[in-house]
Design brief:
This protein is an alpha+beta fold and about 500 residues long. It has helices at about 35-65, 85-105, 130-135, 145-155, 170-185, 215-230, 245-250, 270-280, 295-300, 325-340; strands at about 75, 80, 105-110, 115-120, 125, 160, 165, 190-195, 200-205, 210, 230-235, 240, 255-265, 285, 290-295, 310, 320, 345, 375, 380-390, 395-405, 410-420, 425-430, 440-445, 450-460, 465-480, 485. The chain has four domains: about 75-165, no CATH class; about 170-245, no CATH class; about 255-405, no CATH class; about 405-493, Resuscitation-promoting factor rpfb fold. Helix 1 (about 35-65) crosses helix 4 (about 145-155) and helix 8 (about 270-280) packs across helix 10 (about 325-340). The radius of gyration is 58 Å and the shape is rod-shaped. The chain starts with about 35 loop residues before the first helix and ends in a 6-residue tail after the last strand.
């Protein structure tokens, strides 16, 4: 009969094989085993999970309150922002900066003058976003653990923000431009006006000190004060620029350097011409390094301008022209310049020696191009006074050169180095019949006149008249004039 079996259970089947006997003849006892390795590792994992869970809960508990608030260790100036919302931080920022902004001024001072810039002028405001956002962003990236790590870093090194302000320098630049107009200026030399013939011929105007103002540093100081929202008083320090000519020095430079008085003899027309030209020269001023030109100062010598026809000795005997006699004035001016220590830059000798000055000391001029010119080498203006006057029945020309004092005085010395004479006559056809009319007529009309080689030296003397130095001024040659024999041009009938 088949034995009863448990449901599903199949008993082991019998076989013909006999069980083999194990060596030793004893049945080996099976050992009991304790908890396995899997159970140990499970326990470790469980414990780690507990720790992680506890840590997570702790980290969450530490960071959760700051999900919408500033982390601990964030500060605005001296005020902690821990736990504050952005709106609260903005309100705090506005509160602590309002008074400073309202009271802000940048005052620029120079002497008794004051220029003020207000916060409104500079549109000075606090940029809340730029100030607070760097604090707000701490711990906002990387999740809860990153936030917790950031909190630990801030605990060691708190982050302190300064208010960041914005401002507009347009009004400041406009004000600086006005200040530059008020302060910066060029220096002006002391000046003197010459009015010869008046009771006080010299009228003086004092110097003006100039100022240079570098506003680059001033602008930087305004920007720095505005950026720190700290009122500032900024001293304007223009650099003084001294003028080249001071009033006291100018007054000391108005002295007589040289004086010439010469008699004007001969025709009344020559005296009239000299008087007219002297009026044009009277009061002439020569600036430092400036050049005086006779022709430019006197102008054209023409009948339309009042000049008369008179003898012109500088161009030879018997020669006349409109403006004749003016060479007397130019020759006197030439000597005036030399005696006043002034360098002459342009001068022409006469054709023949003249009788109104020593040989070699004349200066011929012509409005057709022959000029007399001299230069002012001093640091101050030179002035010329010129006048003609009558004394008794004689006419005179007086010239004065006024300017910086000389360190001595000068004299002129003319010396003839060679004299030549041509005795062989020259024959001249007298087409005008002035001396001889007929072709067989011979009339001696002039004596031979010698020629000369002449040097002129300028000698510098001390107060006692001792020679200090000597310089050669000119070397001139005057051609000899042979005797002239005139021959008529008409035949006798």
């Amino acid at each position: 009969m088949p034995s009863m079996t448990k449901a599903g259970y199949v008993p082991p089947q019998m076989t013909d094989k006999k069980p083999t006997k194990k060596q030793g003849g004893k049945k080996k006892r099976r050992k009991r085993s304790g908890p396995g390795a899997a159970a140990f590792f499970s326990l470790v994992i469980f414990l780690l999970a507990c720790l992680v869970g506890a840590g997570t809960i702790y980290v969450y508990a530490q960071t959760a309150p700051y999900a919408d608030a500033f982390l601990p260790g964030t500060m605005l100036l001296g005020y902690p922002l821990e736990g504050a919302t952005m709106e609260e931080a903005q309100a705090l920022l506005e509160q602590i900066t309002r008074e400073d902004i309202n009271d802000f001024t940048a005052e620029l001072r120079w002497g008794n003058q004051s220029y003020i810039l207000s916060a409104q002028d500079l549109a000075l405001t606090v940029d809340a976003h730029a100030t607070l956002d760097p604090l707000w962003q701490r711990g906002r990236e990387g999740g809860m653990l990153a936030c917790f790590a950031e909190m630990l870093r801030l605990k060691q090194a708190p982050m302190i923000a300064q208010p960041i302000v914005t401002f507009d320098m347009t009004a400041a630049d406009e004000l600086l431009g006005l200040i530059h107009q008020d302060i910066a200026c060029e220096p002006a030399d002391a000046k003197v006006a010459f009015m010869p013939g008046s009771a006080e011929p010299f009228s003086f105007t004092g110097e003006t000190i100039g100022y240079s103002l570098n506003l680059t540093d001033v602008r930087a100081q305004i920007e720095r004060a505005a950026g720190e929202v700290t009122s500032a008083v900024i001293a304007l320090e223009p650099e003084a620029i001294m003028p080249g000519v001071m009033l006291d020095d100018l007054k000391e430079a108005i002295v007589l350097r040289s004086r010439i008085v010469v008699e004007i003899d001969g025709e009344k027309a020559a005296y009239s011409n000299v008087t007219l030209a002297a009026k044009a020269i009277n009061g002439a001023a020569i600036a430092p390094s400036g050049v005086f030109s006779f022709n430019e100062t006197v102008g054209e010598r023409s009948a339309a301008r009042g000049y008369l026809s008179a003898q012109e000795p500088a161009y030879g005997e018997g020669i006349s022209g409109v403006g004749g006699g003016v060479c007397r004035l130019s020759s006197a001016l030439y000597r005036l310049a030399l005696l006043g220590g002034i360098p002459v830059t342009q001068r022409s000798a006469a054709v023949r020696p003249v009788d109104y000055c020593e040989i070699g000391q004349e200066a011929a001029v012509s409005d057709q191009g022959i000029d007399l010119a001299f230069e002012n080498p001093t640091a101050y203006p030179l002035f010329i006074s010129a006048r003609t006057y009558m004394s008794g029945n004689k006419a005179y020309l007086e010239l004065q050169l006024i300017g910086e004092p000389l360190d001595g005085r000068y004299s002129l010395i003319s010396a003839i180095t060679q004299e030549t004479l041509v005795e062989e006559p020259v024959y001249v056809r007298d087409h005008e019949g002035k001396y001889a009319r007929y072709d067989d007529e011979r009339v001696e009309a002039g004596e031979a006149k010698p020629g000369y080689s002449v040097v002129v030296d300028r000698v510098k003397l001390d107060a006692e008249g001792n020679e200090l130095s000597r310089e050669n001024i000119s070397f001139d040659e005057y051609a000899p004039v042979p005797p002239a024999i005139y021959i008529g041009t008409q035949k006798r009938e």
